[in-house]
Amino acid sequence: QKLGNAIYLDQLGEALAVIQQRTDIKKFDIIGMDACLMGQLEVLSALEPYANYAVLSEENEPAVGWAYTSFLNALAENPGMSAADLSKLIVQSYITEDQRIQNEQARSEYLGQMGRGYFSANQVINMIGKNATLSAIDMAKVPALMESLNDLSYALQNTHQSTVAAARSYAQSFTSLFGQQVPPSYIDLGSFVQVLRQESRDATVQQLSNQVLTSISQAVIAEKHGSGKSGATGISFYFPNSALYRNAYAVFEEQVEQLGH
To answer: What is the pLDDT of residues 96-142, one digit of tens each?
Structure first.
């Protein structure tokens, strides 16, 4: 299967660098990604040189996307609002203030497209918002977060790997792009570190875990998640286990065998 039109993180960084050079924009006020599974530390690292704030989702996004009418009306009424406040509004208005949900006629049309009958606005919010997430990130805090995670990762070399595996297994996870046959690879960073701190008896690991959690709380200026993602703290990261690579190798061998025939 082909991925279609895609941009990788290194290409995204290159594109933003070109825009920066051609426009003399030092940094964008906000870079937002109204798309699925973008709220990862790896993405933030790529965007950090080019933006003051970012708005991203750790999980898949419902088809309605962001509530543009709500936060853009607020911006039109107060064009001098700060980028931080606008970022927060994007998160706060997400799903709950969407016109396709709050407006009865628009809601009826939206539900009809999905083959559903009548639901109230609150019912639709609960239905599509259960597994939804959205975060606003202060990008100036991302380097410190990266440094704190690097320190923790270095200390984990001396930690029994069953502790790390437990944290990965029990942390809040998000939709996997690699199929149901392997454990999820996109893990909430704060949730992972919370479990790690609880499971580890190493005082250094506990101290460094606290530093990571503090860095997350400073970086995430607004965060929303539904009841189905109760462990979400605003930023995820990529942490697969070896089953992903074993499965990928098995698929590769199968494809090679088919080509041989």
So the answer is: 999 989 999 989 888 888 777 778 999 999 999 999 999 999 999 99
SS3 56: strand
Assessment of whether the complete model's pTM goes beyond 0.70: yes
Contact 184, 238 (CB under 8 A): no
End-to-end CA distance of the chain: 19
Interval 199-208 mean pLDDT? 95
- C-beta neighbour count of 159 within 10 angstroms: 18
Span 223-232, pLDDT tens digits = 999 999 999 9
Q: Considering only CA atoms, which of 62, 128, 125 is closest in space to residue 96?
A: 125
DSSP at 25: -
CA angle 233, 157, 230 (to 5 degrees): 15
From the CB of residue 242, how many other CB atoms can be counted at a distance below 10 Å? Answer: 9
Q: How far is CA 239 from the centre of its chain?
A: 14
CB 28 within 8 A of CB 53: no
